[in-house]
Amino acid sequence: MKVIAGSATAWPLVARATEPAMPVIGFLDSGSPANMDENLAGFRRGLGETGFAEGKNVTIEYRWAQGHYDQLPALAAELVRWPVNVIVATRSPAPALAAKARTSTIPIVFQTGSDPVKDGLVASLNRPGGNVTGATRQTLEMTPKRLGLIHELAPKATAIGLLVNPKGLQSAVQVQEMQDATRARGMILHVANASTVGELDTAIAAVVQSGVAVLIEGNDPLFIDQRKHIVALTNSHKIPTIFFERGAVVDGGLMGYSSNFSDSFHQVGAYVGRILKGEKPADLPVVQPTKFELVINLKTAKAIGLTIPSGVLAIADEVIE
Asked: What three-state secondary structure class fits 148?
């Protein structure tokens, strides 16, 4: 019986030895898996359109920094040592920069809200060069539109708030761009800093007490992870808030203006599939959004005592009632 059992277990090992190795995708993110279901579904949909399915003909190794940006270099190095065939780096430039610092040969596909040229990820949008390409949501370029919405919501506003994570790579740029824009309009900007869950309550309460008319949520994975908590806080303070992603509005936030996160992840998935089939990152232009969505939650507006002007409702892409 022992001999038969030994023989039975030997056959699969021989068979596996003759099969090609299943490609491995390294997935690196500075946040956590919280509230990522829709985005990951978009990513897998893009992979599927190029013939790849997780667990069937491709493996995905996930690494989440849980908001600890200082852990990204070690996580990136771990994926490089694996070794993976492609590294996906999402939601901010930090994971992509960490991966780029660890390898110049493994393809890297990023998904970020900032300018990848300014971040040093690619040489240009049309001709990325090197081993890096991806998709940008251009979140940081929406400041003028968001300020325009604020003027419509609170035409007499002289002070607005900006919630940022000071540990995020994009935060300094977000603050500077918002300061320049508000100064040009004769407005005062109050910055609320929160890099942990525990700091959110204090930061939002402080900025509300400063007398701001509207709060703008900066772009950071922490705020996606904690979006239900942030929605509850801003609604309890009855402070009109403009979020940087649609999911927050679906969860009860007042308003969101951004490109579509799921679409961006879908584009990343498609690029990863094309690279696994032999295309080179240097030949794949950085994907830019073609549409920006304004989503408004009327139920929330009523709850915080705000009337949304008809002109703003008229240009909304989606109204939740």
From this structure: helix
Indicate the number of domains in the chain: 2
pLDDT tens digits for range 190-220: 999 999 989 999 999 999 999 999 999 988 8
In this structure, the answer to whether residues 124 and 96 fall within a common structural domain is yes
With CA atoms as reference, report the closest residue to 288 among 168, 124, 97: 124
For 192, the token pair is 């609320």
Output the pTM of the full model: 0.83
**Residue 275 lies in domain:** 2-137+261-283
Burial group, residue 198, by CB count within 10 angstroms (0-12, 13-18, 19+): exposed
| Residue 310: C-alpha distances to residues 253, 307, 316 (Å) | 19, 9, 10
Contact 230/260 with Cβ under 8 angstroms?
no
| Residue 91: closest CA among 129, 135, 122 | 135
Decide if 288 is inside a domain: no
Q: Give strand ranges (E) for 218-269.
A: 241-243, 255-258
